[in-house]
Amino acid sequence: MLYSKLFGKTSKTMPSDEEAINSQLLIRAGFAHKVMSGVWSYLPLGLRVFEKIKDIVREEINAVGGQEILMSALQSKELWDETGRWESLKEIMFQFEGRGGAWLGLSTTHEEPVVDIARAKISSYKDLPFALYQIQDKFRNEPRAKSGLLRGREFSMKDLYSFHATKEDLDGYYEKVKEAYLRIFKRCGLEAMVVEASGGVFSKEHSHEFQVLVETGEDTIFYCEKNVRRPGLPGRPGLDTKCDFAQNKEIAEVYAGDKCPKCGRKVLIGKAIEVGNIFKLGTKYSKPMNLKFMSKDGKEQAVIMGCYGLGPSRILGAIVEVWHDDKGIIWPEEVSPCCVHLLDLSKDDKSNVRKAAKKVCEILEKAEWEVLWDDRLDVSAGEKFADADLIGIPLRILVSEKTLAKDSVELKYRQSGKAEIVKIKDLIKKLS
Asked: What is the pLDDT of residue 365?
């Protein structure tokens, strides 16, 4: 990918109307375009990150038996009337009258639609269990659409729904998804904490949120001082979790300075970003929508359900909130838009430096390394370095007259800032 041809260059100007770190950096680095409050478009580099996050989600959810489907965003009033949520969600659901006087809504969530699909297919205990998921945009008329990609009116959501014959089966699957979520976040560079929370409108039981500690977070949580799971960042070493106690402020039974009810250590308070949540729905939606199955003993029973949500767009925003410094974004390797940011300091398209950079690019691409090559001839070295730091690709490779004199390139790592000289002939071996 040639930077000179890339749509969506970097900007030196800080967006004046953006307070959130993620929106400021994503706009300046050329990853996203703000359409209106709470609505975003992804530019080429941003879309690459977005798709990599979704690929990770698919891999981990498929691994726990999820089957991907795609449900419609446009919904009929009659379906949502079955649970009474056409009225109860009126404040946040976009509702409008279509042709012929039919009332329609844009899905804020998909419990009703997925139950409608399931009840057309389920008849016996032999049809259970199964789990269906989708990755699709949701629409919510948020009164406070702020914080960049962290709170939107249109946003991407992976919603998974599981269907079971027994509560025990639901409990077992719930734990599998919990572990899958932790793997997803870890692969995205986020060490999430499992936090007990209210079931809200979804469940009478407590639910679990996945929260990432960060000073700019919107949520407040109480957690054991031994419950800190995070990767190492510049100036901040990674820590291992020793106790899993954590509660959202809304249901907290202890406060900062109290003793942890699980291990006796001190309880801390912190700001955090919610990146996912899971609920045991039970029969909350299956009963009113008549989703039943015939058990082994011939009795008709309501299907037991669970639901599990996370937002790829919200994860993208959270990554930037955690992984940045005063120079720009620091992408974790697995979600970076490219593997390598190649810079050459040539002023002439026919120079030896340009020819060497082309050779390096070919070597990398042949080894299936994704490359963003800053091939611009009309900008200074300082501007290229600043743009590379702002964009935040983990590895920068520099080709210059100085490195070429040694038949080498300079490797610089975005996170640590360390640099080293490597022979061009040894480059792939070094990277491997």
From this structure: 97
